[in-house]
Write a structure and sequence with these properties.
Chain A has 303 residues and is mainly alpha-helical. Chain A has one domain. Chain A is built from 10 helices and 5 strands. With 251 residues, chain B is of the alpha+beta class. Chain B contains 7 helices and 13 strands. The N and C termini of chain B lie far apart (58 Å). The chains are: A mainly alpha (303), B alpha+beta (251). At the A-B interface, β1, α3, α8, α9 and β5 of A face β5, β6, α5, α6 and α7 of B.
Chain lengths: 303, 251
């Protein structure tokens, strides 16, 4: 069964889109990852042009992060104050990201830029997952214990703020900068930026680990919303039908993933995911390095 | 489809019986089964029936021409191991969709100058360079060839031979197929009658390809009110995300 996507201007199989949304949701539920960084490349693989893939991915992220953040909120796992400071940076980052997106699109380099970014991102993420899960499988090593308190350059920055929920007294610049980086990636690539922000919140900001996913999800809701609106205004590439179908698949996938996740040993699945992610990066890299069938590409512009 | 032969018989009857004089004056008459192609949610391509009559025997060529659009072509070059777009050119005057249907190969029907004059046949399309202004003619030719090649690959440019059915001496019928990715806009369907290599008669039938139903309103609204559309897209997904969390509230 095909459905016509009004903004993309093409028909796509509903079943494939639901499976895709479901698969990304499943992985999100299983590993607690955002999954936006998988959604965009998978959409590109099934033939959705990158510019629409990025916008639809950001739009469906609004929905999936609302679901995730609400669950965290009920468990009291969100540092609102920290989230708002990160959001301030995130909104600026999203504007910069969408602006860069539009600029790259004007000079005809957006598709290659998105591909490159994903090769680097998926390649390094996948390698890290393989390394980390491989170590866990081989040595069953417990995670290195963190020091309770660290003092580094992050504490020498001005504009110090007290974050009661996180029990931190740090410069507001640090979380804002983390949010800005996440928002920027979101604007260019349609990802939530969680894969970048979560480690940064744990290792750079030194936040309590339990508060990290909820706080980052809370911030992603509004950054993804900002990216969606900006993409609509600046590039006109937001396909609401596509986003809603992906979200529908994702909603089911997340719940299945959450249930499966409680019964399975995580490191084997993380290793498998690592392999998949590296494979995806390799596919994208091959597309850019293998001599194309036709050196020319064509873009129709309606007057 | 069963009604069609009956309709043709009816047309045949009216052409030969009711208006013998008009038939003599009009060497060629044709029309489409529908003048609107509506792209709706389930659209996977469609075909229209074109039927007509010719006063005397001769070759029939049908040209379906989509709206002229600006086309940007980019060429990849090998840079540090990666294939990257480094060159580009834009062309004006090329139709977004173009198809010919003829009863035998175009080259056998008329001479090249005549075909070129009427822009009949894919190789006779002449999109002109919009930018860069100083594009070398040899490079422009490469780009034009690539434009045609990409459009053919996308199924938007095609020459079809031998798909016209003749019924008796006068009537003819064919189907005009449109793929799922048919561009929207104003189309023209030109029907030409050739005899001994000379153009005897021609007729143009207008055709509109348009988005219909919910989809047309969605894409129109997204264009006109991009800000509000973006906000609605956010509200819709946020609402769906909230609804999705309700069944799991107590976990």
């Amino acid at each position: 069964m095909d459905i016509y996507l009004p903004i993309v201007g093409e028909s796509q199989s509903v079943v494939i889109l639901l499976i895709l949304g479901g698969a990304v949701g499943f992985l999100s539920g299983l590993f607690g990852v955002g999954g936006g960084w998988l959604m965009t490349p998978l959409l590109i693989f099934i033939g959705i042009p990158p510019i629409f893939a990025v916008a639809a991915s950001a739009n469906q992220l609004v929905g999936s992060s609302v679901t995730g953040a609400l669950a965290q909120w009920r468990r009291g796992n969100i540092d609102l104050q920290m989230g708002l400071v990160m959001l301030a940076g995130g909104l600026v980052g999203s504007v910069l990201g969408v602006w860069l997106f539009a600029a790259l699109r004007r000079v005809g380099q957006i598709e290659i830029a998105i591909n490159f970014a994903y090769i680097v991102m998926l390649g390094s993420l996948g390698a890290f997952m393989l390394f980390e899960s491989g170590r866990a499988i081989l040595f069953r090593a417990p995670a290195a214990r963190r020091k309770l308190h660290r003092h580094g350059w992050i504490h020498r920055l001005p504009l110090k703020m007290r974050f009661r929920r996180s029990k931190l007294y740090i410069s507001a610049i640090a979380p804002a900068a983390v949010g800005l980086a996440g928002g920027f990636l979101s604007g260019v690539l349609g990802v939530g930026g969680g894969f970048l922000m979560v480690p940064a919140m744990i290792y750079v900001l030194d936040m309590p680990t339990a508060l990290v996913p909820g706080t980052s999800l809370f911030q992603i809701i509004f950054v993804a919303a900002s990216v969606t609106i900006l993409q609509s205004v600046e590039n006109g590439t937001v396909d609401i039908v596509l986003a809603m179908i992906l979200l529908l698949g994702g909603v089911v996938g997340v719940q299945v993933g959450l249930r499966v996740g409680t019964h399975l040993r995580g490191e084997y699945f993380r290793a498998l995911l690592g392999v998949l992610v590296v494979a995806a990066a390799a596919k994208l890299a091959a597309d850019l390095t293998i001599t194309p069938h036709d050196l020319y590409s064509l873009e129709l512009r309606m007057p | 489809m069963r009604g069609l032969p009956a309709a043709l018989v009816l047309i045949a009857a009216s052409v030969s019986a009711a208006s013998p004089i008009a038939a003599a004056v009009e060497p060629l008459a044709a029309d489409l089964s529908n003048h609107v192609v509506a792209i709706t949610t389930g659209f996977t391509g469609t075909s229209l029936v074109l039927f007509g009559s010719r006063e005397e025997p001769g070759d029939i060529v049908i040209v379906v021409r989509g709206p002229a659009v600006r086309m940007a072509l980019r060429r990849r070059h090998h840079v540090l191991g990666f294939w990257i777009n480094t060159e580009s050119a834009t062309f004006d005057g090329a139709p977004a969709f173009y198809a010919t249907i003829s009863n035998r190969p175009l080259a056998q029907i008329a001479s090249a100058p005549i075909l070129t004059l009427h822009q009949i046949g894919i190789e006779n399309l002449r999109p002109h360079v919009h930018s860069p202004r100083d594009l070398r003619p040899s490079r422009a030719a490469d780009y034009r060839a690539a434009l045609v090649r990409r459009q053919q690959r996308a199924g938007r440019y095609l020459d079809r031979v031998g798909t016209i059915t003749f019924i008796g001496d006068h009537l003819f019928r064919t189907t005009v197929a449109f793929p799922a990715n048919v561009p929207i806009g104003k189309y023209s369907v030109e029907i030409f009658l050739f005899r001994d290599g000379a153009l005897v008669a021609g007729q143009t039938v207008p055709l509109t390809v348009t988005e219909a139903g919910v989809d047309s309103s969605v894409s129109q609204f997204a264009q006109d009110e991009a800000l509000i559309y973006g906000m609605i897209a956010v509200a819709a997904t946020a609402m769906a995300g909230w609804l999705a969390s309700l069944p799991f509230r107590n976990r």
